[in-house]
Amino acid sequence: MWARLRGVKRVRSVAAWLGSKPVAAVLAVWVVDSLICWMRVPPDMRGRLWAEDGLVFLRSWALDGSPGLFFQPYAGYLQFLPRAASSLIALAPIQYWAVLTAAAASICVGAVGAVAFHCSRSLVTFWPARIAVALVPALLPLAGVEPLGTLCNLHSWALYAAFWLLFTQTRKRWVTVLLVVFTLAQALSEIQIVFFAVLAAWFVWRSKNLGQRLIGAAVIVGSLAQVVAYLSMGRAPYSDQVPSLGNVIQGMLISVFGGTLTSSAALMTAVATYFGYRAMTVLALVSLVPVVLVLWRADGVHRLAVVYGGLLVVGIWFFSAYLLKFPGGVPLVPWRWGMGPAMLLLSLWIIAIDHFVRRRRLDASIAVFLLATLFIVQCVSFTMNNPRRQGNQSWSEFVVAAKVECAGGATQEPGPGFPADWSWMVPCELLR
What we know:
Strand order of the largest sheet: 1-2
Number of helices: 19
Order of helices and strands: HHHHHHHHHHHHHHHHHHEEH
Largest sheet: 2 strands, antiparallel
Shape: globular
Structural class: mainly alpha
């Protein structure tokens, strides 16, 4: 008993210190989350440029470099953050491009965790729950399937950032300015941010907090820009095959519900085989019971967060499945398209735990145990799982070998591509 009391006092003292040093706490989260993301990517993968990182983003800056690249649509929408980060990386010596890309991507994800941590105080007051909010972007198992360490997938985290940003109420002017700029950058990086436009308009109209209204306005502006980009360019689906409703639901069970706990395709296949998709549906519905119970006694803001977040979890997944039309149907393995919905689902669970602690319906120590267990389970999928990003030369090895060829009279050299069909001819003028 005395040990438990000492533990509670220690947690409260840490919480009090963090509460008195908000800037230090945010910076600490940023650093920790960035380091977690960096460590989740194996060293050999950090040295390889993935897909759009090299062929589209870095190549464009290296060969063109015009300011218009910041807002040039790609695949039907704007990708401002990847474009901006690659513009800085392209200024560095070419042999460091791959490792700098992995570092920049980790730092950007860490920033999302830090901002979510800061903004969550408007919805979550239990300190372990706020720390959980900060850890979700860095530890989500599904992020290890492909997106970690790449600039081209930074937009996946924009949905998580937007959710917490829209519910925050700022007090200081400089904080408001930073959050509005951050919101706009995220909104200009992910087209599915348009799903937040209704919520943003609601806060612009009804909120009495200037910062919250400006953040909402930034979401709306970014959404309009994304719509214009899509209408001007469009996007072709992966196939003409329309997935069946059953296939989409099965994929959701694996990537959204399962993706919050593991990124192991073997494990999810075994679970689906042993329990069946009907049993998995029942388990998924049972897991939502705490979230539904929040609606009974929560205040209006928390109800709005839970209802809107729940609609987004379902809506964004179905939108992706039917818009992209995967060949053969939605992949029945953990897949990165479920990242946004999975992070939002975890947000709802965290809000539910915080609500029950505040209402004294759940003991704080039990709540900490549940949150700790969640992240311990997630750490089973700590290492990035992307075999297509391995093998052949690393980027730095290619640069060393290519410089020799260029010195011998070559004008360009084929750079290593991951996946293999994403290679590009690197002019020797960039290698000298």
